[in-house]
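As a next step, the fold was encoded as tokens, giving this record:
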Amino acid sequence: MSSSIAAFTGVLIFILLFTMDKPVDFPGTALKSILKQRGFKVSWSRVPKGMPTAFGRRHFHLILLSMGSSKIHYDDHVVSLDGVYLYFASSRVPYATEILSENHSGYSCVFTEEFIKPIERLESMKQSPLLKAGTTPAFKLDEQQQSRLAAIFDTMIGSDLSDYIYKDDLMRNYIQQIVHEALQMRPEEHFVQFNNAALRITTQFMEMLERQFPIENPNTPLSFKSAMDFASQLSIHVNYLNRAVKQITGKPTTTITGERITAEAITLLRYTDWSIADIAYALGFEYSNYFSNFLKKATGHNPKFYRVG
């Protein structure tokens, strides 16, 4: 590790120092300022064993090259990372990080949605663990993979120290490299090719669906909820939409929208103080009992089950 890279060890990017008695907010003031000004930061750092960070959604994406033992509390799952892992944390899913080993180390790249706007529509980015719902966010690395990715991160850090005026574009290229490394680790069946029309329609549908989340205002209900809503907006017949989505995903349109609304409902119930009526309204339900029946059918539990405390 060069001296210039080592100078970044004091900059805590992929997790802040922990207190002994309560979770620490992430990001801290310094990182918030950097993200507000530029929308990007890359570093290498060591982090001591400690309590988990506060659980919640962040307004940025995070890519980790994690070396050691840790746990990621990710949405409704716990991912144990023991060894060397490449991990992707999306701004769209709540998470917390818990360091289990002493002197845990790793590289991190933190960036906002706005920072990757120029590349987020590329097919590789759409399929990446950052933006594609339901993908595995953690990849265990062998020695060769670790070496390649560490080299990318080292190059990123060195380039970011330079005065090159187009280095933000360069950083986006490095992010794409890391994404491609991850995509190559996934099974081949994830890359089955479909006819362009069905894929285009399904991609447009998924983008429209995902753009409605996360919900941050209880007074603004979902604009599109039913298959007919999406079909009308796309100016196609609802049967055409349903056939395309089923062909590409293997699931009906209503199942995909229902699963996404269910995931958002659980997040809002757990991590906001909004009333159940407000959450129901924000998710497009006219009455609270409609929302309760929907959630009960989808999960087996009523809304109060997911309330914390």
In short: The CA atoms of residues 47 and 104 lie 5 Å apart. Confidence is low (pLDDT under 50) at residues 1-25, 188-193. Strands lie at 40-47, 61-74, 77-89, 95-99, 104-111, 138-140.
